[in-house]
UniProtKB/TrEMBL annotation:
<protein>
    <recommendedName>
        <fullName>PLC-like phosphodiesterase</fullName>
    </recommendedName>
</protein>
<dbReference type="InterPro" id="IPR017946">
    <property type="entry name" value="PLC-like_Pdiesterase_TIM-brl"/>
</dbReference>
<dbReference type="Pfam" id="PF26146">
    <property type="entry name" value="PI-PLC_X"/>
</dbReference>
<dbReference type="GO" id="GO:0008081">
    <property type="term" value="F:phosphoric diester hydrolase activity"/>
</dbReference>
<dbReference type="GO" id="GO:0006629">
    <property type="term" value="P:lipid metabolic process"/>
</dbReference>
<dbReference type="InterPro" id="IPR051057">
    <property type="entry name" value="PI-PLC_domain"/>
</dbReference>
Length: 263
């Protein structure tokens, strides 16, 4: 049976993944409701973030993926993207892949027929859901096979997904391409907005997320302005991912719906 509702909207079932904007939670594992927890980037837990329509970024792997799998089983018409940072350079085949297998995420993961895959070549959300392969995972380091045999369901991020700078402290979010690799042009990459505003902690030079500005930063006007500023660098299209801190604050979903042309 073909999916008739995809990620909450019938209109998205026929929309290619590469032409869809998703709301993302930056450092989704770093959640706390304590306002004195200065290193927090989110205020609600992982399941609550997923229920807001959020993609995943980071976290303790096995428990994290078990939470994801439980949520996926309860939400069969959702396409989910996982963005992981491999800052410790852990082996993809020896460390990361077994965690995916243990949680059962490998069985629902999409494997592109081409690697790298052009933005225009991705299937529709409906096709991903109908195939049962509706999780797309990107890894920022090691997934290109440099540390051993590549794992086909863990994709090298920057050959297919470009990023502007992160740790912005300027609320106007001036845009440039910061991380990109591989043979594809910027226009053929998926793209991301790192729409996370940081502040200098007590003048120490340590940058932390700025919860006081979240309602403005996560507002429609700020997100759309950032998208418009980056669009000329990626062929005039909307970003595929809008990464926010404090996703429960502001109008992130409203902005993403606007970028998707949804009411």
């Amino acid at each position: 049976m073909e999916a008739t509702i995809c990620n909450g909207h019938a209109e998205l079932c026929s929309r290619p993944y590469g032409n869809t904007t998703f709301l993302g939670s930056h450092d989704s594992y770093a959640f706390s409701s304590d306002p004195l927890a200065l290193a927090r980037d989110q205020e609600v837990d992982v399941t609550s973030q997923l229920n807001l329509g959020i993609l995943f970024d980071g976290g303790t792997v096995v428990d994290y993926l078990n939470t994801v799998k439980t949520w996926l089983d309860a939400n069969p018409n959702e396409v989910l993207t996982l963005l992981f940072t491999n800052s410790d350079g852990l082996s993809i085949p020896d460390i990361w892949a077994p965690a995916f297998v243990q949680a059962g995420i490998d069985t629902v993961s999409y494997i592109p027929p081409n690697n790298p895959m052009k933005r225009s070549d991705w299937p529709t959300l409906g096709e991903l859901i109908d195939s049962g392969k509706r999780v797309i995972t990107f890894m920022d380091a090691g997934a290109d096979g440099t540390d051993g045999a590549p794992v086909d369901f863990i994709l090298p991020e920057f050959t297919m997904l470009l990023e502007p700078p992160f740790d912005a402290t300027d609320p106007s979010f001036p845009c440039s391409i910061d991380r990109i690799s591989g043979p594809l042009s910027p226009q053929d990459h998926l793209s991301m907005l790192n729409h996370n505003l940081d502040t200098n902690l007590f003048g120490t030079g340590i940058l932390v997320s700025d919860p006081g500005a979240a309602s403005t930063t996560n507002g429609v006007a700020s997100i759309i302005a950032n998208s418009n500023g980056c669009a000329p660098l990626v062929g005039g299209v909307a970003p595929n991912f809008v990464m926010l801190d404090f996703v429960n604050i502001g109008q992130g979903l409203q902005a993403v719906n606007q970028l998707n042309g949804l009411s």
